[in-house]
Write a structure and sequence with these properties.
With 153 residues, the chain is α/β, with parallel strands linked by helices. A seven-stranded mixed sheet has the order 1-7-6-2-5-4-3, with helices on one face. Strand 3 and strand 4 form a beta hairpin. Helix 1 crosses helix 2. It binds adenosine-5'-diphosphate and magnesium ion. The site of adenosine-5'-diphosphate (ADP) has 17 residues, from helix 1 and helix 2.
Amino acid sequence: MSQAANDQTTDAGWITHSPEETFAIATQLGARLRGGEVLLLDGELGAGKTVFVKGLAAALGFDVDEVTSPSFTLVNRYDARLTLYHLDLYRLPDGAGAAHAVDLEELLTDERAVIVIEWGARLGAYPLPAQKTWRINLTGDGDDPRLITLRNE
Ligand code: ADP
Ligand code: MG
């Protein structure tokens, strides 16, 4: 996930037809993580955000079965090659209140950590690390294919 030298916004997209395919795309991206990245995941309930996080976690060397949705705990922490903080803002108010509730400022000081945030759009304009923040959108639900897009900010 290195930034292009010319600093242009990077866009990429995939269509997946199964949870396994979504998992595999996330695994490929996860292998490129070095620490310090923030991944904002958005998409409706059932779009596959948690499936995606499981793929990231697999790439980072975690036991995927330990990855569960932090809908109630708000933050799950997994430690391996890097630390992975897995956040879910679904139950939180939009904006700085959500960031405060999960103590995001503190998590951002950990340069060996990757932070992945389900419902990341709820952070609004909360300041995040330039060039190390990625917006990942998943569209589609049920048995429909998913469109996954990746954008670097
Ligand atoms: P979210 O975290 O976005 O609410 P989950 O990852 O918990 O969603 O659940 C996604 C559900 O959709 C799972 O039950 C998964 O098996 C199913 N699914 C069907 N097709 C796909 C696909 N192409 N990609 C991801 N998940 C899919
Ligand atoms: Mg989820």
